[in-house]
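Subject: sequence -> structure tokens, single chain

Hey, anyone have a minute? Need the predicted structure for the following. Not urgent.
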Amino acid sequence: MLVAALLAACAKDPADLTPFPCAADQGCPTGTACLPGTGCTSPQADVVCSTDADCGNAGKCDTGRCSPPCSNGAGCASGRICSATTGAGVCLTSCTATAGCTAELSCEPLRLGGASACLPKGKGVGGACTGADGDACGPAGAGLACSGGTCQTACGGGAACPSGFVCSSATAGICLADCSGGQSCASGTACASLWYGSSKACITGGLGLDSACPTEGAACGPFGSNAICTAGVCVPKSDASGLCGSGRIGLVPGATGCLADCSTGSPCPSALTCNELWYSGKKGCTAKAPTACVQTQTPAGANNCLNRCGATYFTVPCGSGNCPEHSYCTPDNRCSCIAGYTGKTCTGTVCTGTCSYPNWACVPTVNGPSTLTCTDPPASAAGTCTCVDRRTITMPCAAAGYTCEYLCSNGCNPVTQDCRPASGDVCHFNGSGVPACLAPAGNLAVGQACTYTATADTCAQGADCDGSLSPAGQGFCRKLCAAASDCSGGACIAVSVQHTPLYGYCYAPADQCAPFSGCATGTSCDFAQTTTYGYVPVCHKYGTLVLGASCTKDFDCGANMECLTTANSAGATVCTMLCDASHACPGGLTCKAFGVQPYPAWGACQ
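Reply:
Had a minute. Here:
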């Protein structure tokens, strides 16, 4: 009989023997579940679970605990609260910050500014989450979404934020503390602009609209911002067709981040700078200067730029002959290598005296790479550059410093008109004197009166609006050029001597002059630099600044004056009187000749 009784006891179901201690991992025999603080027991509310099957009739497995079901904020026993105000949820134990929860559960906020419930630590609002931004987190139906690894209250799509909070998105985002009225933010957050309207919110790290961001091309900002880190700035994405909202401009043509547009002089947000975007004359507010070169390609067996020696490479006009590539013609018609290049004979010996045509060349002082990148000087290799504006530039064996980044950022070629055909743009000079691919604003022929701004020019492709000759500032279309050979007579006058390579306008012989004569009323004669580093006297309008006044360009000064740094100007550029043998200097100053052909005696009073 005793044996039969023992056998009968051993045959009992584990549930008949509860409670007994849970295992170290909170595991229990099949048919039971761990209720922390009690032990292994039959499935009931708040026992530990992995799936709904662990809960039996006790409800659903939610946030690792079995909880009775509820809906629309109702259907829970006394002392419990429904996790969902709308739709299906689970009944959780209500609590306060100091009381109400059993062992291993924590009183966590269930809703912003609302009730709290007993949950595993960190499972409520503000707790950690491992899902992607926008993934549901927290208790069932609580309306929480993961954002940046933190569980937050979702909003949008009909769900509003409680008082004192604002939605991160105009469509679907998360609720953030509202600081639009100057309210203070919690530690770890900072007040920043949102991506819609004029609202501001307390955002983790302050990573809001137009704030600096660390990872180029990565998503940034809280869930719902639909923002991307572009040129070091967290900005909205363009739509699928590449269009940006009002006041915004893309970093590159096509789908991209939309920067604040400063093309027409609009101020940039704090800590951002207005920078060229390298296409269509556009400018955007960025945290760092954007790059203009996308990629480079060096042909197999890269061209050796170090051995280009001989008559074939004497391509720079000078006097009655030519100078070798990578050189320029001095005012006294001599050949001089440009910066970064040294004169060497064809056998590689440095020219210590006068090199003899055609047995010498200007070769790179420092050998460059055999395979180019955007920022390599092509001293020993040639290739092609692909630019942000989709142009492809052929990289010749050019001067040290002519990197692909440099060529892409210094605009298009106004002579070859290499703007990409699909864009419809034409190559004009922008307001900074840099050739840029701009939208056509007119089709006026060379010689016709025209108008121009920093981002538009009414002349036809291949011409540009030049207002330097007219006293009233009226522009006239001139042919664009790189050398006098592009002009069919006359001279190619450089538009900006700071830009390299030099491009300019064709000036007919009729626009050239002799010192102190030959110019229309309101204009005076002055030397202008050609694109081959020579000088030609041409008429140009003059300004109102008087002798000795501080200036930035010749056009600022009155008639028969240049803007120069002289021996007695203490390093400043001032309006300086021109002189020659027939035009003496005022105030006891001395005429110091420029020594420039065709008027070597013409000079400045110093």
